[in-house]
Queue: 2 jobs
Job 1
Amino acid sequence: MTVATVPTTLTPRSYQEEIFSKAQQGNVIAALDTGSGKTYISTLLIKWIASQDAARGKLIVFLVPKVALVEQQGDFISKHTPLRVRQFHGGTAVNIMDRSKWKDQLEKSDVLVMTAQIFLNILTHSYCTLKNVSLIIMDECHHTRKNHPYNGVMKEYFQLSGQDRPKIFGMTASPTWSTKRPEEALATLEKNLDAKVITVKQHAEELHYHSPKPIEVVRAFPPPPEAFLEYPVPSIWSRFDRSKIPITIDIPWDSLLVRYDVTKHNLGPFAAELFLHSDLQARVVQLMQASNENEMEILRMQYLSVSEEGMMDTAKKIAPEILDLHEILLEYQPFLDFHHEKEDLPGPWAFNMDWCTPKVRVLIEILIAHHTPQFQGIIFVEQRHIASCLAQVISRIPQLKGMIKCASFVGHGSDDSGTGGGMRNSRQRDIVKDFRDRKINLLIATPVAEEGFDFPACDLVVRFDSLQHMVGYVQSRGRARHKDSTFVIMVQEGNALDMLRYKAFIDSEPEIKQLYHSLLNDRPGDNEDDDSDEVCATDLAARERFVVPSTGAVLSYNTAIGLLGHLCALIPSDPFTPSLQPRYTGDFTSTLHLPTALPLPREHLVYVGPTKGSKKEAKRAVAFLAVKALYVLNVFDDYLLPTRSAKDHEDVDGRPVEDVSNVPAMMDVVVRDPWTLGPRMWSHPVSVDGRRIAALVTGTPLRPVELSWNGKTLRTHVGEVIEFDEDEERRQRALLQDYTDLGLWWCVSSRPRADPLSCYLIPTYADSCQPNFDGMERLLEQPHGSYDWTAINESHYDHVLIMNNKEHGRPYLIHRIRRDLSPMSKPPAGSREDGFPTFRDYYLQKYTRRGVVPEIPFDGCLVEAYHFARQTSAAYHLPHTEGADVNMNAVDDRPFFLPFAFCRWFSMPEDMFRLYHFLPRILHRVSDVWRARGARADLGLPPIQDNLFIEAFTLPGAGAGYNNQRLETLGDAVLKLGASVHLFNKFPHRHEGQLDALRRQCISNRTLLARAKENGLEHHLTGEKQNIKTWRFIVSEGSPCLDGSRTDRRVHRRMARRSLQDCMEAILGASYLTGGLSMALQTGTALGLNLGGTVPWSLRYSRPPHSSSVPALFLDLQKKLGYEFHRSEILLESMTHPSFPSNSASYQRLEFMGDAVIDLVVMTYLYNKYPRATSGQLSCARARAVCAPVLASVAIRRLGLHNLILMNNTELSMAISKYVPILETTSTQDIVMQSWAHDPPKAISDVMESLVAAILVDSAYNLDKTAAIVETIMEEILEVLSPDMRPDPVSELMVWTARSGCRRICLQKSRSRAESKQNDTVCVVVHGVTVAGPVTASNLPVARAFASERARVVLQDVTSDRALGRLCDCGTPPSPAPLTLVNDLDDIISDDIEIGFATLAQRMLEELVDPANPDEQEAKDDSDDEGGSSGEESNENWISAEESDDDWMSIELDYPDEGSLDT
């Protein structure tokens, strides 16, 4: 950007120009009051920096301490500059593990506005360096102290040499926190920021005019009374005995009592009761409604039609003491809940100001005194529950009704109470907006509102609670910045300490400002690193800093604790798993205890740090030590990340991965094809049942191919080069073209081709492969047939083709000449012509066109013939696929009677015209084999069976009679297991969460597509439609082989990007079926997939040669399995829950691999048992078998694993004990079909999966042995599975709505309680109308299932107001394969938005529906009496064949009269 392009719309005031000018000269901290336009100055500085040559190509970073400021400051900069501004905070930032996305975002940005922690993270992981930053602006920079992220950023700043450092501009209204030693505080801030504090000096009067001070008032209030005798209601505390509440019910009584007393002291008994009632009510409701186990039972009972008594029994499981407490709270509801009407309350219960403290009464007086019609104010309190209760009390006060509309405003922090909990960002934004729009005129706020939020200037600001520090005083006062605004400090009478503190603030402020001016010319003497967290000089000198040499990622004392927290946060957990966070013990020598769920040797789970001068420094030091050690163990990668994003351009083995983000959804590709012309043409004999009939000619030498069809065995043989006559070559080549074109017209396509053909089927001499040009010439003398019937006798009946000149292009097979019939004869009963007086009358009616009456003879004989059905499909069935052959002759049961005078006969021999009937399938088969063998050689693949290889390379849109979708589904399971085993062994110290993220990268669509492109897979795919009404074997205009001088074995095609990803997995599936897992490993390695190499697992991973004894606890389990473990420790690990203290690891890593083992075993079983099941049917059946409830049922009923799990958690034990009888009494059929209605503790299915993995590991990775055991223990489950199983409710809803054409449906997710950490509630919304829900369950998948089931019932009910037919106006259903709605490279597509739901629904519909049956289509075409062509099928999403080398013309353009079908 140049100076000329920088807009000049900002017009600064003089005092702002003064600060801006100083900022240009060096690093400064602008100390200006709230409302003085500091952001305005920073924007001027941004524009100036952007215009400097030295800043070209560098970023400008605007840091803020709070999320709310990101959008506020980012919007301001975007509005006033043309720069590319990106905003990032915790809720919107790119995942820190997504390196490529961060790279993309940074490259597309000029200015980054973000929270400081986000910026520190990207510096830590080397996504960006400060050398690439020209300017850092820090809003509210007084936070640059102690361990704040601002300080962490500056510590990296000081690592650079002077010329590499970015400019620093700090902004604050309160540079010091304390009135004690302000010189030292300012010096520390200046040193931390490498900047000097400045304020306005020359234009102070202007600043004062535009940023006036409010009227400051101290208002005293009497202390609260010892007792509130006027309060008429007994305390809630007095109504129950909390000692009788079961200790298993987690209510922090001591904490509640402290808060109750604080509220009563500050606000009075009514507010205290209000707090207690709200808090207890929230907890009781949570216990009654959020008892997820009970709620789950009720939902399940409703679905399974359990009696009301059964549901009552479930409800009775709630503790009676809780029910009693609930009844007590309900009694107080009318009195305390201000949402209820109060007119019916007794007089003594009407709200009374005597129920409030004198402090509240004084506050009310202040509000009344300062109220105006345009009034706006803020009351600052210190605690959240005080803010909430005070807002409700003020809303009750009669004197303020109609004057004050108030709301509480608090921070995000978590709180386990019902009142005073944290507030979400969205709620904060809503309140700020309402306050700005004057829908609210009074906020009761905690210190979170002191800075960072864009509040309008207030008429009144009240400090209800004591001031604690200078920053709070200055910042809250800054909210009252009108000339006539009032700032009230409330102080209790006789509280000398509060008054002294307040006076110190007032007295020190002028001194501090004077200090600004005195320091204007005093730059700090050095820039050495400093820590304001009371770190002694010795500790500072001993601090280390580690930089990863290969990436530049930085480990420091400030980032180490956060990195460990991030690592542990990724460990999968369930509700019964203890908190998986690092634990620090000790004081000045800290000991770090890492969670035992981390798969580390015992010596690496505990670290002892060096002795330090403070507890915090000791904690940082031991964390630093641990992260360095874990990096060496490969727990952290070279970017100091515990895992990498699937979008990184490097795979888990360090090999580069091509960026495929720019690959279009529909690709124009060049595909290898054998059919071409060339200077040399090969003639390949073709035999039927061993007898040579003709020759197949093309410009490519072809290997022999065999095809069985309709009881015939067809073979092509090794060819030889055609010996053209040098003088006659041009004419002879034309004969090849004309003869084949004629054969196609009579026998295949019913229309001649104008384009040059790329292959020919021609007669040859009996003793050679050379073309019989004389025979071809004789046939071509009468291309439309002969009217000379003298040569035809009875021996030719049923062996000669004829054609009716009134039905040009419709061949018949002559049956006999009926000399006993004439046009004037009466048609026999039951004939096609029956119903007409004579045959002639029938002919007149049939052949009259557009009023033109044909000449029909009165005499002459008739010809009895049968329709000779043309070949309309090139599809064939592979030997390993099922499919019924069709009658190639397609002889109609009833003959046709044709006027002899209209008929002409075709002299092509019967063997030849019947062979032409096979020609499309022969060409299809030859193409498949030629491409398959070429692909195998080009890709370096092992000897996969030809037919499986062909199936793997055939796309669904081809309509070939088979496609790669079944193999893709099988290959997906093979890839998942192969990657799992590789990762499990490659990263022995990474936990399940890390391994899962790495596996997602290995099997992601992006990785598969990248490897497919790298291998050139698209050049070998078969996607041409096999409906051959359009003959594809032609040479396109402009092809270099058109003149026969050069060979071009390529054709242009258009296919979906998604087809490459599917083909990669299909090849794996084909290799697995051919040679088991060993061949799959060879294939995957050749394709570049992360399977660990070609060495078989049994050789790669060894085990002890002899069995070792296992604990007696597991002897019976070995008998049930029929397997003896060689390594007892692996069995012990598989049974150990994370809650159990043990020297062995927990089962989580094994569970990661066991899931993949079971997945492959079940899929292999289904694939082999149901050869005609579609990909979607296989996936649906597999999902039924491998879900948690089904595996839990097997674990309990077949193996008794619930008695063997090693755990140390009472709640988990109780939950398992509760679910055991349910699973024991639920039949196999029911648990499979209704699995979604069950939710047993996940630990049961987890241990089942880990046990399977333990068998695989212990057997030296013998998959066959492991699979046999899995099939045995899951025998009952597998027998229930079938392809036609009803899908789960979500899938069923998706498929049904997709078939109906509705594209505006979604599953909206929410949280049943504000304090919930995860969504657990679902509503089904159709066209903006909620048709089911909210449904709350123990977890989100269960809620989705129940909500979807309810929604489908409602939508299918035609009598309902919410029937789909009444709600949906999407129009007709979409075509079978519409264009991709959502990027198929996104491995996770959300169904909580309409387009995501529609995409998933359409994909599911495609998978579940059978591909078009080519035989059915052929029969349909053959039944067309008139022989007319129907319109070309609509384009598939998978591929559309295109023939022109130069213009990429779509094949549909051969029929311009039928309209364009271009999608």
Job 2
Amino acid sequence: MARRSTADPLDGPDPLGGTGPSDDPGPLADADPLAGFAPATRAWFTGAFSAPTRAQAEAWAAIGRGTDVLVVAPTGSGKTLAAFLSALDRLSHTPPPADPKRRCRVLYISPIKALAVDVERNLRAPLAGLRQAAVRLGLPEPEVQVGIRSGDTPPADRRRFATHPPDILITTPESLFLLLTSASREALRGIDTVILDEVHAVAGTKRGAHLALSLERLDELLERPARRIGLSATVRPVDEVARFLSPRRGAAIVQPPSAKEFDLSVVVPVADLDDLPADGAADPSGAPPGGRGGASIWPHVEERIADLVQSHRSTIVFANSRRLAERLCNRLNEIAVERATGTALPEAHAPAQLMGGSGAAGGAPPVIARAHHGSVSKEQRALVEEELKAGRLPAVVATSSLELGIDMGAVDLVVQVESPPSVASGLQRVGRAGHQVGAVSTGVVFPKYRGDLVQSAVVTERMRAGLIEALRVPRNPLDVLAQQLVAITALDTWDVDELLALVRRAAPFATLPQSAFDGVLDMLAGRYPSDAFAELRPRLVWDRVAGTVTGRPGAQRLAVTSGGTIPDRGLFGVFIAGADPKKGGGQQEGQREALPKKGGGGRRVGELDEEMVYESRVGDVFTLGTTSWRIQEITHDKVLVVPAPGVPGRLPFWKGDSLGRPLELGRALGAFVRELGSLAPEQAAERLRRAGLDEWAASNLLGYLDDQRTACGHLPDDRTIVVERFRDELGDWRIVIHSPFGAQVHAPWALALGARLREKHGLDPQVMHADDGIVLRLPDADLLDFPAEFTAGFPPGHLAERPAPDEAPVGADAALFDSGEIEQLVTDQVGGSALFAARFRECAGRALLLPRRSPGRRTPLWQQRQRASQLLEVAAGYGSFPIVLEAVRECLQDVFDVPGLVELMGDLESRAVRLVEVTTPEPSPFARSLLFGYVAQFLYEGDSPLAERRAAALSLDSRLLSELLGQAELRELLDPAVLAELAAELQRLTPDRRIKDTEGVADALRLLGPLSTAELAARGADPAWAAGLRDARRTIEVRIGGELHWAAIEDAGRLRDALGTPLPVGVPEAFTEPVKDPLGDLLARYARTHGPFTAAEAADRFGLGTAVVTGTLHRLAAGGRLVQGEFRPGEGHTGAVEWCDAEVLRRLRRRSLAALRQEVEAVPPRALAAFLPQWQHLGGHRLRGPDGLLRVVEQLQGTSVPASALEKLVLPARLTGYTPGMLDELTAAGEISWSGAGALAGRDGWVSLHLPDSAHLLRPEPVPPALTPVHTALLDALAGGYGLFFRQLTDHVPDTPVPDLVEALWDLVWAGYVTNDTLAPLRALLGSGRTAGATAHRAPRSAPRARYGGVGRGPVRPAGALRSGPPTAAGRWSLLPEFAADPTVRAAAQAQSLLDRHGVLTRGAVAAERVPGGFAGVYRVLSAFEERGRARRGYFVEGLGGAQFAMDGAADRLRSVSGRLERGTAAEWPGTAAGEPPQVLVLAAADPANAYGAALPWPDPPAAADAKPAAGHRPGRKAGALVVLVDGAPALYVERGGKTLLAWSEQPAAVEALAAAVREGALGATVTIERTNGEPALGSALGRVLEAAGFHPTPRGLRLRG
């Protein structure tokens, strides 16, 4: 058997075959590294490998000495086997312990689940080899079991682990945390070795701090601490990582010299990035950074990458974002398809660089590439990995998800699009290629624009030299500490000092101050007011006298369900609809294990950003993981999809952030620029070639630097900062600070700079920081040059200080800060920044202060932000609140590089770094690059409405409070029963809130304040429970108002300072510290737990004087916490000033309104009739263009209108300038479809328009006709799912006469089975009729076109004999889509459509639309809409019943219309004012905008002149009929054909509107009105009005031609 090098079966592509060179073992060559192993182990290794690598030999020597070991070696050096082989050797020849629960002796921890699975799979080879070697040597065959525990582990395997653990457990940090916080921890007591892989990936993060505490908790379980073996890629400083791994014992560091070779190049695919070829695709986001044209670099990059992929066997393409990975992957596949077929795909895609929103994919199959990132499901990622390893997939486009040590097989090329985010990241990524020992790793970097070239060159050069960035272990992250303390104490009682000692044993907490530890315990023990924010309630009990800490009930569940350190970004899970939920995917990387779920979606596809989902609709197609998916349903926490192969779809986007360039890399980049600037052009080009840049990359970079030097005269480098000033397109000043030192320095600098400009100059600048500098925009800066009349009194010297009109008002000196003051300035400003708010939310989540409402289900990001904001309002009053301190620490230490900024300011002071100031007529090349990021930041910041929504919500609350303040009428609005019910709930007197145990007593005293024994008993408490809490030093017994009360010990200082209450002996000092506002706290809590009260009632409760209490209540009201007024209904309270907590009052008002919503003041029915046309865009609200037509169809879909009225009345009434061609254009494009819904007399019929995505949900149900063989043959012909022309249909029914075939076809149309891709045949059908119905709404015929025939051509063929068929059969015919199978989905869509169409939905409106099941069928859905806030229920319109539903805003508009009607104006018409003419509308009687005959009954027929009602003529929603509304009231009704007219009003405006409609052909070519209100039209009073409007008398009646 040929030997091979240790291309580590746990690192290499083939654990049993292949050859390769070994590292030079150096001085260890004389010693046998395998001497310490058992014979079977030596036999297997020497048979499988030629020799150990140096890393393995030195690691085994260190492990053999029994110490902790840190092995630092590059990818592919065999370090994983180095750690495992000694453990496998020991396990294979040592019998397992007698106790099966102690069998697990080796714990392997991987930071990512994919790596854990990879290691488990690759362990099979050495295990099998050891067994075979033992058999050959006649030794007992070892049975070493390996198990995995992660979020994807089935529940049955988790339960088995507790009783039968394997020898080796492979897990993740989060799963280890869960094991330690459950009964399964007993199965970990036998562990003696812990292997921590990829330690460099976690050591510098809070996830690493969390893991460090978990490892100390594990050691606490064991008889002696486990030996730790850490595996790391190249890392710096090594000592810091070794301290993280083994802070107490010290780890032996194994770091042999690296022989890893890299072949790196920086490639630019065009000659000049600033003058891109014109054939590049247009960039929809504007000119590319640094470029002047509209072309884009991306098509050229995509083509070059496709060339590289197709010329290599296996390629990984790395992108810096999930969004770019998806887009680039789709473009590579599109290019492959285009090359294979020779046909270009439609230009539906956007270039890959589009940075905001979602683009589109062309629907190309995954020919050469598939996407791999954290938002793709684990199953999809595993499939992609396997296909790449097996050589079936040429390329994978990935993010950092493939960066860590997963074995990807024989990858021969890595492509990096954009500069790697760091040197360490670049090494990890390029290390995926040549993953074998001694192999060369080949990488190609494609910069995205000229500014990216500099960093690409520097990073690749530092990669070759191994100059990675320094790693820093977080110090004392208090949010992680809080979470772990809850978990540690959930199962055991701990001595406080021992607990602190345990925490300090972990490296991140080695310097944890006692005060910080006590502060976190205080927070968790309920020190802060949980009645103001519920999640501040105690999670543990801290007995300060005994010095013990114990978890409270529920603490374990809280830690298990909400633990972990990865921020919850509210992503939506994407699942396949209808699949088996038991086969659903696991969590994404770093998430906690999920609790078992009941029901749910099917197999997991991946996850989408919340904003992406909010912008999506059911029926949309998007691409995820190179597969197209159609959205079937969007719930509150998941998106259900079905595959849509080959269908073009939107490309998703995800919002994320990164820390930016570190200072160390920034200094290197500046030094590189300085070096290039000092060289001659030839030398500089040679220098760049040595750095790995190709000719075009080098020429572009040198040209970029030359252009910058020409524009500014200086290059920004590590010794020069350039401040550039210029005016933008609006004339505002822009100031650009060019600096290479990176975003971690620039971010705090920008924060301080913005604060200075606001304070010193009164400006409100827009400041944006980036890796390459800072951009300031000074809006209206010229306003600082005040007019002379405002400066007349100024001292002369001050006027001289004003800037000249062509000079920026802020100079470079504004950017300079005292190095001794800048740190404090940044610290002062960070608390008001958006960064702090975001970090506070994440820290609060880690500290379990924002737990998941429903474990296993997503919490929307906006809800997290809202809850975090509420918590911050409470915490802001406490300067020592641990999570506020932690958020500030994280900003200053982990995000910002404040020491680096201080150092930079010192260098500026000492002139080690100079500051150069220039003014330019236009932005320099460097400035254009920065401005591109500036535009993107503010452009897409506006796309995120959360901040605006929150501000709007707060402003609404403040207006509500000001409205309620002092309003006596609230007494009439608040329901007495509601008030009594809420008061009982607040006081925990309802059955569901009764006290059930000792902890319930503690909660009641904490939430309600001091209670007497009788009051506790009234709430269900046993008197002994309070006494037990007193013995545990958790409650005290005090006298308040002359009566004994039980109080929570946390209230001791508050009661003493506010009431002068004597405290019992033995209260810990922590609870007797002075309280800032003791009486305010007591009264605020009293208000939160009571309904409205008087000052006398509160004073009596606390035994105080009324005046003292009143003063404090006024102070609380001034702060917005209380509201003053008269609230309680009924007698006995009149005249007394009452107080109520603002939130309690809101709850009272909401509940009262819900209870009284049937009695809300309703509007007259006429207001609904005037409102409905507005809501549907008629009259002055008409829409325009194709988009307007789509909106009209969206609102009308699902309802039917007469075909004869559709294009003469219904659509023109809603669209300005409507023409049939507009509808034809959209139907031909597939944007609109139509269907029949029943035939009418005279070739007319009911038709319905739909958007194709919802046609299967909303179109009217088919009416099965009496099928004949012709009907059946037509249906069979169309069953293939494609459209056929009439001549093709005749081929399927060859023996049927054309007229019969056309008639059968239209039978199927009116029955709702068949449709056409145009409305031309429908128009032809309507125009061919000869009955009144056929001409009901026909336009006058145009003059016939002359036909010209040549001599000898014979007679003209009749139209019916054309091979293409008659005009009534023109176009392409097809079957309508089948109905959605789920009636619930159809009902929900129908209800939403009804609400959208009517705004205010009533029983009559539903009945008029012939909805299946009637009002009862949609009532349940509408009720569910109300519960979810999508609709409101109330008594909105008089006389229409209580079951009325309205969309948001519709009820208010309805009331607004009613108010204007009462004031004599119609509605919200532009320019309408009191006294203007009434608003007149002419509608088809069957138009959905006509409320009469639907939501409203028709008025009685008007009486004739003889006072008798018009006999035989009643209005109705009939095809062909017209109704004229005046301010919502019916004025005229014209029967079909126009022979009869009903008139409720003889207003000339109404008659003139009718005449205008007749002239436009609304009732046919000629209309003769014979009778009005049942009497002859000639000679009637109304007849004279008609004549005045243009009707002419004839013997038959009054005639008007169209």
